[in-house]
Amino acid sequence: MPEKKALDTRIYVLDTNILLHEPLAFLSFKEHDVVVPMTVLEELDYIKDSKKDVARDARVSIRAMEDLLHDATPEQLMEGVTMQGIGVGETAPTGSLSIFVDHALPADQHVFTSDENDNRIINTALHLQAQYHPRQVTLVTKDINMRLKAKGAGLAHVEDYRTDQLVSDIKYLSKGFHRFNGDFWNEVTAVDSRTEGRDTIHTLAREVLPEAYVNEYLLDDTEHFAGLVESVSEKEIDVLDLGYERLMGRRAWGITPKNIGQAMAFHSLLDPHIDLVILTGPAGSGKTGITASFFSIFVQTYLRALYLLGLLCSYFTLNRIIFSLTATR
After folding, report:
1. Which pTM value belongs to this model?
2. How far apart are CA 225 and CA 218, in angstroms?
3. Residue 5 domain-assigned (yes or no)
4. Is 139 in the same domain as 176?
């Protein structure tokens, strides 16, 4: 168990999904102490030998912890091994890493009596909270239900893992679109429209949207207009007229968008002029489903093209051989 330290340092108990999400997550807590329950190590050991995609992450995490703890005695493992000297800079860890043998926790100290892995991890955090009070003990997990259970069981501090968020305040990230109140065309006093092939481009005064940037989608409350900023100059912006219904009617390999957010994602992913698309949104908004479907279909199409190309090469090679044999007769 962690050594007694000043109250301004905290103890973080890590759930298995944190180390699968980021294998070196235990190094991200600066001066604070990190506790990994034995149950977490058992889950990592089980996952590392599986055929799941996260098996590699489990192996990386286990190997990194073993590199830190391999010279420690059993007593030191439970008391905590310092992480000082690993990494440089302000974010380098200076706290300790310890292994908590949750199987040895007396039954009378179990808040949850059922022998489930999540319950054992929560019991560990509750035990450490009682033992190290008033020092803060925090359970870190990406499992929403587990966070609710821990809170309900009396754990004062439960967190999601946010260290991997590269932007410190996500609200300042661009949404990728701008919605006008009311009708978009009521905001426009002058417009120069032209046709390029099947596309209609509107050139507007920059004052309509001073903060406009290339590839920003434009919507309004009427759900009739939808556009995409194609270029921005000092005084003007060019907007590609997409049309709300046409944007919502976009299909790709039988996949159709359920809302305007997904429709904009479809359009961006299918636009050959856009090299990188970043999707943000709450759970269930379709980020993973859309990208996974597109990637899977792309790979299948690519492999099918390679297969057909191989058949064509074989066909032409065979024809060349037959022609050569015929010519020699």
Report:
1. 0.55
2. 8
3. no
4. no
